[in-house]
Amino acid sequence: MSKYTIAVFVGSLRRDSFNRKLAHAMAILAPADFTFEQSQIDDLPLYNQDDDDEPSASVLRLKGEIKKAHGLLFITPEYNRSMPGVLKNAIDHASRPYGQSAWASKPAGVLGVSVGAVGTALAQQHLRNVLAYLNVPTLGQPEAFIQAKDDLFDTSGRIGEGTRSFMQGWMDHYVEWIKQHTEK
Are 11 and 76 in contact (CB under 8 A)? Predict the structure, then answer.
């Protein structure tokens, strides 16, 4: 039985997204007592403070998923040297109204994959800045700026042999981070 529920936020809407594939592959590397549940963010309206008193059903669902999770995993591409708007929109919705953030104190990890050689380094840094402001303790090391190469995933969708050891190490650190921040 799962002891830890992780809410996963994929910053790409693309059907064949490398980052969505990475989310699935990373969940396979986790121990059996961890369950990864991807949160839907593509149906959220654009954030408008006028709606804070009467949030949409999709916003209430998002906030509920975050609140029930023991931890968070953000997996994001890099658009124009930053995180995608759809991810920032989700972050903004769940942080409002001011003083009622669903994110506060939830431990997190940040990953991303891109075809570029620097992976998603700048998107991850921007995301980390926002998460710090929202009081989300975020795993600092190891960092993982992953380049999408032909052997990143095997034919079954798992992390490929050449990258598996590194990504397993990242997952092991992430698991300990979540446990450290959720167990009393």
Answer: yes
Instruction: Please report, rounded to a whole number, the percentage of residues in the chain having pLDDT higher than 90.
Output: 93
Q: Give the closest residue to 87 by CA, choosing from 169, 170, 27, 12.
A: 12
E runs forming strands in the chain: 4-10, 34-38, 71-75, 108-114, 145-147
CB atoms within 10 A of CB 31: 11
- For residues 184 and 170, what is the distance between their CA atoms, to the nearest angstrom? 23
pLDDT for 129-166, tens place per residue? Answer: 999 999 999 999 999 999 999 889 999 999 999 999 99
Per-position b or e across 80-106, b if 16+ CB within 10 A of its CB:
eebbbebbbbbbbbbbbeeeebbbeeb
Q: What angle do CA 132, 117, 72 make, to 5 degrees?
A: 30
